[in-house]
Write a structure and sequence with these properties.
Strand content: 15-25%
Distance between the termini: 32 Å
Helix content: 25-40%
Structural class: alpha/beta
Strand order of the largest sheet: 5-6-7-8-10-9
């Protein structure tokens, strides 16, 4: 399976990666900021239909979770096509024998500059913490979020980067809201780890590539348009075991 970072409406980048990497018969999980909802419903429907057909021709299913640059209405469960699927928050996918939990949403640092424009900012863009679900869910192997817990880079221990501070000058509550949101992601991760043995966590949002490891859990932030293949070596390991056990 593949995981892909923010694409912000760049469908050509998705197609380019699929063609150049010769991806077929695969599931691709998008970590958010797909860029859906920034055009008229008619045009968006045309774009979705064409991408769905492109994916179908290659036997690829693209699973998309919600970012802050996505219209939340596309993630209510009504936009599930044959090969392009916009999933609700807290959807659990079962792919290649793994259970993958997706939780979307994040705060836009440019939210104030988008408030006055139709189809540009949505109050429901933020991450929502469902403690009851996280307490009761079991057997999750992989977590997908859009933003990240405080334990993951960027840690902001030396302050926020200049681009965030630039928007914070016009949005007095931004920095505090960002801190609270990442603390809530940490709470979500803590609850998951209580009853689940996670191996990987993928996220985007920060337009950088980061990789860190806490205990046995690998956290990976995917850059813009970045594709990462998480390979299943189970069959390969079985072949090796047969070869060297003789």
């Amino acid at each position: 399976m593949f995981f892909v970072g923010d694409t912000h409406g760049n469908i050509d980048a998705i197609k380019f990666n699929i063609i150049t990497k010769k991806i077929t018969n695969q599931d691709i999980i998008h970590v958010g900021d797909f860029g859906v909802g920034f055009m008229s419903e008619k045009n968006q429907s045309t774009v979705n239909d064409k991408l769905n057909e492109f994916l179908k021709e290659r036997d690829i299913t693209l699973h998309v979770f919600r970012g802050n640059h996505d219209n939340p209405k596309y993630f209510n469960g009504d936009f599930i096509f044959s090969n392009l699927k916009f999933h609700k928050d807290y959807t659990v996918l079962e792919i290649e024998g793994k259970k993958i939990l997706g939780i979307g949403g994040a705060i836009s640092i440019d939210r104030t500059s988008r408030w006055n424009y139709e189809n540009a900012w949505w109050s429901e863009e933020t991450f929502y913490l469902d403690e009851e679900f996280l307490t009761n869910v079991r057997d999750i192997d992989i977590l997908v979020t859009h933003t990240a817990p405080t334990e993951c880079p960027p840690t902001n221990t030396d302050g926020f980067p200049p681009i965030v501070m630039q928007f914070a000058h016009r949005d007095m509550g931004l920095l505090n809201d960002l801190r609270i949101e990442r603390e809530e992601l940490s709470r979500a991760l803590f609850l998951l780890l209580e009853n689940n043995s996670l191996t990987h966590h993928f996220y985007g949002h920060f337009h950088r590539h980061y990789q860190s490891k806490v205990g046995d859990l690998i956290h990976m932030c995917l850059d813009i348009d970045e594709f990462f293949e998480l390979k299943d070596y189970r069959d390969y390991e079985e072949v090796l075991n047969q070869m060297y056990s003789k």
